[in-house]
Amino acid sequence: MIFLTIEQNYQQMGLSPVLVKVIDFLKENSLALKSKEIGVYELEGKDIFYQVIETETEEIQRRNAESHKEYLDVQFVVIGEEFIGITPWKNSYKVQNVDVNRDLWLYESVENEGYIHAVEGCVSIFYPEDIHKPQIAVNGPAFEKKVVVKVKYSLIMQ
What we know:
Shape: globular
Number of strands: 12
Oligomer: single chain
Structural class: mainly beta
Number of domains: 1
Helix content: 10-25%
CATH topology: Jelly Rolls
Strand content: over 45%
CATH superfamily: YhcH/YjgK/YiaL
Radius of gyration: 15 Å
Order of helices and strands: EHHEEEEEEEEEEEH
Low-confidence stretches: none
CATH architecture: Sandwich
Largest sheet: 6 strands, antiparallel
Mean pLDDT: 95
């Protein structure tokens, strides 16, 4: 898991060139993304695409931990704020639901979660081994707009 802001000097952090390109896109389009319509948009076909999501954050008890196997999640807060729970994957975690078409594994419960506070301009990068619980309310449920860029994991491994 990597956590940063678009204002940091992320180009000098030793990130994969693919991730630098994705963060460049988010930084260069951060203002335009505020008014971007909800939907799915391709950057490089099915290898790199992004979803624009508008949602309401929820109390922690209503959120499920999740992970992905084929894609990295690059989550970017456009408007609002959230807590995101994070914990390393363990074979002992019981899977509640799997949607292979969406590359989404939901877990009944996890343990030893840490939390990050993501505000506008924050980028959270989750690898397949990173179980995460996004969209947790900070001070009660609130509107949030975010972009989730899906990056084919095999691109990072090249």
